[in-house]
Specification:
6 helices; transmembrane helix; transmembrane
């Protein structure tokens, strides 16, 4: 396991952005959609900070993980564990299922794959 400083810096910056969005924006496109878009990029970059893993496989793993979390919202998992009043958990996991969140996650992963492809292609040429 070798620390990748570039991905670690990206992770820290994305985490700060996500925290600022959560603290200061209570509604709207940036809070509900762009935040989800960034969330999968954040998860991806955190893992890439610590593991040298195939980019495509990791992107798929992160997307599947995000979809699982979203579908757990549909199953009202917070209520099942009596956590619906825990604001921190609600902010991290979300509390309502939205198709638009699935779209945002997918677009975030597509963005990752495009960027990774372009970076790798630049390194090859």
């Amino acid at each position: 396991m070798k620390l990748n400083k570039t991905y670690l810096i990206i992770s820290i910056l994305l985490f700060i952005i996500e925290v600022l969005i959560a603290w200061y924006l209570k509604s709207g496109f940036i809070r509900h959609t762009f935040g989800d878009f960034l969330a999968v990029i954040l998860l991806y970059s955190i893992v890439k900070s610590f593991l040298d893993i195939n980019s495509f496989k990791l992107a798929i793993y992160v997307l599947v993980f995000a979809f699982i979390i979203e579908f757990l919202q549909l199953a009202n998992i917070l209520k099942a564990f009596n956590l619906e009043n825990n604001n921190l958990i609600k902010t991290i996991l979300g509390s309502t299922f939205q198709i638009s969140d699935l779209v945002a996650y997918t677009l975030g992963i597509i963005t990752i794959l495009i960027i990774e492809y372009k970076i790798c292609k630049l390194w090859i040429t």
